[in-house]
Amino acid sequence: MMPTNPFYSQAAPALQERGYEYTIFVNTEAVGSHGYMTWDQLQEVRDRDGVTIANHSKDHGHLAKRPGESDSDWEARVDRSLDGAQETLSEKLGINVPMFAYPYGEFDEALLRKIEARGWLGFGQQSGAIGETSAATSLPRFPVANAYGQLNSLEDKLRSKALPVDASQLPDGVISENPPTLSFTVPNTISIDRLSCFASGQGRVDFQVSGGDNVILKAPRSFNSRRFRYNCTHPAPDGSYYWLSQQWLDLSQPED
Questions:
Q1: d(C-alpha 61, C-alpha 103), whole Å
Q2: What mean pLDDT comes out for the span 143-159?
């Protein structure tokens, strides 16, 4: 007998009992395989109040353009994954939700344009809250699994606010230098001397200030992972935190 998916057997009933709304992003080729929900289970959950089911690609592949990959090969590969999954969700569940979660949180500028052209909201894996200045095709979300799923930090995540930085200032994250440089401008409601920034595996990182309101951040050491982040936080008036996360992608590192 196939083991019951823990989300279906444990998390979904708990969320339903509490009246919480949630979204399941589905990798369509994995449905029904070991440890994953079946189409019958997804159909059942789909009909519950407050549940949205959306696209997480056809094959959960790395969708940013690979080094040496031709434009035509990339176009065909990505279109097949995006649209194939959307067509399967429509066929199996009768849904056509304009939302997409990037596998591994990876995207580049060309992939962002494809999501925008389809009129979809795109969700990455960079941490943070969604706010007025967020970009519709690269929305943040907090991980709450494994090392990031500790209850002692959950309240801060749930109460956090988006650092009011225009997302159009932020790069797509594909690096051309290692370590990369991040530059953004903060509004006068943010006191730069209360801003704290961190880099994956390197702890707190110093930054420079230009023109009084432009933050320039660069980690002191290079990174050896495919994905890593810069995070910046700032106290909010109500005791919570403003939060900004920039995920970086090193295409020279192997896919995982």
A1: 7
A2: 78
